[in-house]
Amino acid sequence: MNVLVGYAAFVAGVRTALFYAAGVAAVVCAFDWAVRTRRISPFRRSARFFRGRIEPLMAPVERVVVRAGGVPSSAPAWVFGAVVVGGILLISLLQMAGGVLTEVVFGINDPGSLPLLLISWVFAIVKFALLVRVLTSWLPISPYSKWVRWSFVLTEWMIAPLRRLIPNVGMFDVSPLIAWFLLTLAQRVLGIP
Q: Do 145 and 58 share a structural domain?
């Protein structure tokens, strides 16, 4: 149990550090935006400091924004957005790892529940792969991309037969939805959380 308490303290520390980092990023990005849009004179000492130290760090983001058809002055907003979204994703991953750690600790204390725990993880991984597969189908990402291929490999055994049996509803393929429903039904029948 000490492991769980220590991990919870670690996650709380990371959350606090990310909160302060987002605050610093907000101030830096707001000041950089004000200098870029000339709301603050670019010739002031603080503005020259930002132009010399911060703008080189923003240059890669600015290039991506300009290539995408955006305005260079929006680069600080994109950086701030990336810091916030990255922080939220990191905290979510840490919380998910904490849940897995909790399950492992309780599984070690009760060895009879380990097979049930492993089966529960298999169901969770296949459901996550279905979710990734559906979300990436809405984006211009190839199913053969190294980032999403694993989701197709893990779910094709279930979706291909369903696709042959169930017709599309208009232009929508509902076989992933039916697969999700069948997985959930199988979990409940087997009594797996």
A: no
Quick: pLDDT tens for 121-169: 888 889 989 988 888 887 777 888 888 898 889 999 999 999 888 888 8
Residues 114 and 123: their CA atoms lie apart, in Å, by 14
Please identify which residue in the block is written with the tokens 């849940």.
99
Q: What are phi and psi of 37, to 5 degrees?
A: -90, 5
Asked whether residue 104 falls in the same domain as residue 11, the answer is yes
pLDDT in tens, 44-80: 888 888 778 888 888 888 888 888 888 888 888 888 8
Number of domains in the chain: 2
Domain range for 184 is 111-193
- Residues 97 and 2 placed together within one structural domain of the fold: yes
- In contact, 65 and 14? CB cutoff 8 Å: no
Are 105 and 3 a contacting pair, CB within 8 Å?
A: yes
